[in-house]
Design goal:
about 270 residues, alpha/beta, Rossmann fold, 8-stranded mixed beta sheet, 8 strands, about 20% strand, globular
Length: about 270
């Protein structure tokens, strides 16, 4: 009479269980984590400047994702490397972290500064470093900003007109708003007889989609209207969206505009 070895039976059962477990692991789809924010720094003019970068998932961004450079407004100026991602584009990207397809660079300017001089160079240095580190598509760089950052969009684009594929200024402008005591204008064209025409002359080849609130009493909507008109007179590729019921905060509605990102990422240098 033959007696089955209980040890052998247990080993066979363990082997079957292991095979089934491995098979289940092999057939279960791997869920890729969403995009993430990382902190970085650059040295400009001998000083260290911190910034943040949103890095999209491989599934959303692909091998060479487009890149967005975001310039914050006056209220986010600091050296904490946090405020610039809490207002404007940052919350929109965070809410869509699983599917936002672009690298987004968030430099920060200190109190009392604008996106000119050193701060302009810091923003461009952070952009260059992020392009290299995260393998961004340098033919699809979108420059956007809100309020003081909207002025910065025109400033940086005039400095480097061949770097960007598209501009998205939100409640920005070119000349000093009449009711604003704090200095705010695009320095590179400020002394021109017609600053809007001078800016348009330098930017006419760049696709632009501008946004503004019709009830904005900080940077009044005539700033965007004049700039859009100047670009159109030169045959520029320009779109303009004015939100009838919005005040200065036009950025939440602008960055949530469904067509914006498809349009922006379709542009190439």
């Amino acid at each position: 009479m033959h007696f089955r070895n209980p040890v052998s039976a247990l080993l066979r059962l363990a082997a079957v269980a292991l095979v089934l477990m491995l098979s289940a692991c092999a057939t279960t789809p791997h869920e890729e984590p969403p995009g993430r924010f990382v902190e970085r720094s650059v040295i400009v003019d001998g000083a260290t400047h911190r910034y943040q970068v949103f890095v999209p998932s491989q599934k959303a961004g692909g091998r060479h994702p487009p890149v967005v450079l975001f310039l914050h407004g006056s209220g986010e100026r600091s050296t904490d490397n946090q405020r610039q991602v809490e207002v404007g584009l940052g919350p929109h990207v965070r809410a869509h972290a699983a599917d936002f397809p672009a690298i987004v660079v968030f430099p920060q300017s200190p109190d009392g500064t604008s996106w000119t001089g050193t701060q302009a160079r810091v923003a461009l240095a952070a952009l260059d470093a992020s392009l290299d580190e995260f393998d961004g598509d340098d033919d699809r760089i979108v420059l956007t900003g809100m309020s003081r950052g909207g002025y910065g969009v025109f400033e940086l684009a005039i400095m480097e007109p061949r770097m960007f594929a598209a501009l998205v200024p939100v409640c920005g402008g070119v000349t000093q708003p009449p009711g604003l005591k704090e200095h705010l204008q695009v320095e590179s064209v400020a002394l021109a007889p017609d600053p809007f025409a001078a800016a348009a002359q330098k930017l006419q080849r760049l696709p632009v989609w501008a946004f503004h609130g019709a009830k904005d009493d900080v940077v009044t909507p005539d700033q965007s209207r004049h700039m859009v008109e100047a670009l159109r007179r030169l045959g520029g590729n320009v779109r303009y969206t004015e939100f009838a019921d919005a005040g200065h905060n036009a950025w939440d509605a602008a960055y949530a505009t469904p067509e914006l990102w498809g349009w922006a990422f379709a542009q190439r240098r």
